[in-house]
Design brief:
This protein is an all-beta fold. It has no helices and eleven strands. The N and C termini lie far apart (40 Å). Helices cover 0% and strands 50% of the residues. The strands form two sheets. Strands 2, 4, 5, 6, 9, 10 and 11 form a seven-stranded mixed beta sheet that branches. The chain has a four-stranded antiparallel beta sheet with strand order 1-3-8-7, with no helix packed on it.
Length: 123
């Protein structure tokens, strides 16, 4: 089992950048596919990005391709989300998640979740 804690959220102007971090506790971090999801008020939680166990592959939602980059450092038990060219539409609570199976990019395939960190992008 792994415990996840997000950090790095905050208020930023449109066009700015922000880096989120997700610190994991436990001894099996490298065995999980990791993902980032987000949820805006009144909307369903949506997939943002995913990264394989050894960083061999990444995937992104169409809405963030070219702007966001997911990465991980297994030695530090940490996954990151670098967010550039932020838009007001990116405003949401961002969640880090870990998947045991590593088979899907949908929320239902992730087993462990952080508490979330707020990202607000002003116009």
């Amino acid at each position: 089992q792994v415990q996840l804690v997000e950090s790095g959220g905050g208020l930023v102007q449109a066009g700015g950048s922000l880096r989120l971090s997700c610190a994991a506790s436990g001894r099996t971090f490298s065995g999980y596919r990791m993902g980032w999801f987000r949820q805006a008020p009144g909307k369903e939680r949506e997939f943002v990005a995913t990264i394989s166990r050894n960083s061999a592959s990444t995937g992104y939602a169409d809405s963030v391709k070219g702007r966001f980059t997911i990465s991980r450092d297994n030695a530090k038990n940490t996954v990151y989300l670098q967010m550039n060219s932020l838009k007001p539409e990116d405003t949401a609570v961002y969640y880090c998640a870990a998947s045991v199976s590593g088979r899907s990019n949908v929320a239902g395939s992730y087993d462990y979740w952080g508490q979330g960190t707020q990202v607000t992008v002003s116009s």
